[in-house]
Amino acid sequence: MNNLLSKEKMYFEALYSKVLDRSFAIAFQDYIGFLAEHGQELLFHLGPDIIERQNKLEALEKQHSELMDKIISIRQEFGAVADKLNIQEDGTIASSLQDLESLIDGSTKVLGGNRFDSMQSEIYDFVRRLLELEHFEQANKFLSEELTSSHQLSDRKIIITKDLKTYLADEEVFNRQDINNLAGALTRLLDGYREMMYFSNNSIQFEATPNNFLDKLFENDRHKEYAKLMSRELQSSHYFGRRRFHSDLERIHNSIVMNNDLEADNQTENSRAIFSLKNGDIHHYEQGKLTYPEKVKDQKYIQLFKKIIEYMPTDKTTIRVKDFDKLLSEDKRAGNTYRSNLMTGSGAFSKFLSNNNVSNAHPESKEPIIKVTDTFITFRNKL
After folding, report:
1. Average pLDDT of the chain to the nearest whole number
2. pTM score
3. Average pLDDT for 310-336
4. Cβ count near 280 (within 10 Å)
5. Residue 117 φ then ψ, to 5°
6. How many angstroms separate the first and last alpha carbons of the chain?
7. Burial tier of 241 (Cβ tally within 10 Å: 0-12, 13-18, 19+)
8. Residues 6+ apart with CB under 8 A from 158
9. 3-class secondary structure, 276
10. Which of 367, 282, 358 is nearest to 318 (CA)?
11. How far apart are alpha carbons 274 and 366 in whole angstroms?
12. Alpha helix stretches (DSSP H) within the chain
C-alpha cells in the first residue's frame, strides 16, 4: 500500500505542476492510467459511492425509458386521431406530428434546451389545435380535466406533463448532486481519459448519419482540438486543459490520501482492534496469531471471518448483510452464507476460537464480539 501511495503522490504532483495544457493532458493520461491499472486498492473506499451512483443512474434511465414509451404511445394515438378525423393536412397538426416524430427518433437535435421540453411543446400544440377545431372528445383523452375551449388549456392540464416535470426534476437533482459526488468526479475523469486515449489512437474521420450528425460534428471538433493541442498548434484548450479537470482531480487525490492510511497508521488502528489481519493471518490482540490445521485454512468460515475483519466499516458495529456485501468486489461476495457458516451448523467457528483460547465476549462490555443473523452482521471489534 505504501508503494502505491508513493506512486500516486508522484504522478499527482507531476500532473499538478503542469502549467501548459499540452503538458497537463499528457500528465493527466499518466495519472488516470495509473489509477485505472493499479489504483483499485487506493479507490476501494469509493465503492459504496460508486454503487449508490450507479443505482441512481439506473433508476433515472428506467424513468427515462418509461417516459419515452409514454410519449411514443401518445404520438401513435395522435396519428390515429388525425387519420380518423381526416385532419392530417392541417398545418399545426401535420407540423406537430412530424416534429414530435423527429424528436423521438433523434433526427431533430435540440441545442441549448431540453428534448423533453420540445416534445411537451409539440404535444401542447396538437391538443390545442384539437380544441380549436372543436374535437373536444379526442382532445380530452390527453387532459386531466374536460375542456371546451383552447383558452382553458395550460401545460399542467396535459396528463403527460406531470411525468415530464417529475423526470426533469429528478434529472436536475442527480446532475446537481453528481457535481459534488466523488463517484461523479471519478466518472468524469475516466470519461476524459477514455476520450483522450481514443483521440490519441485514431485518425480524424468524419463519418455521420442524419441521426448522429451533430454528435459526430462535436466529436470531430474535439478530435481536431486535441490533435492541434498535441502538435502545439494550440497553446490552450478549454476542453482538454486544466480548468476542466482541476477540481475533480484535487478531490479524488485528497480522498485517496485521507482514506488510505500509511502502514504505521494501520498498525496503530490494528492495535486498537481485538481481531486483525497481518500477512493474511488472523491475529488476536492478546493471543497473537491464531492457528488452525492447514486443511482448515480454506474453510468457508475462516474466509468469511477474514472478510468481516478486513471490510467491516470502522465507524460501525452493525451493518446489513446485503450492504456489507456491496463493499466487496463481486468475486468476493458471499450472499446469505454468513450466518450458516459462522453461527450454526457444526460450530466449527466457535471451536476455532476456543482452540485458540479466545472468547467471543467483548473484554469490556461482555457482549458478543461477532454475531450474525440472516439480516445483520454485528462486529464489536474495537477495544
Report:
1. 87
2. 0.61
3. 84
4. 7
5. -60, -40
6. 25
7. buried
8. 120, 123, 124, 127, 142, 143, 144
9. strand
10. 367
11. 13
12. 2-16, 21-38, 47-85, 91-105, 115-132, 136-140, 160-180, 182-201, 213-230, 242-259, 263-271, 300-311, 321-326, 338-342, 348-355
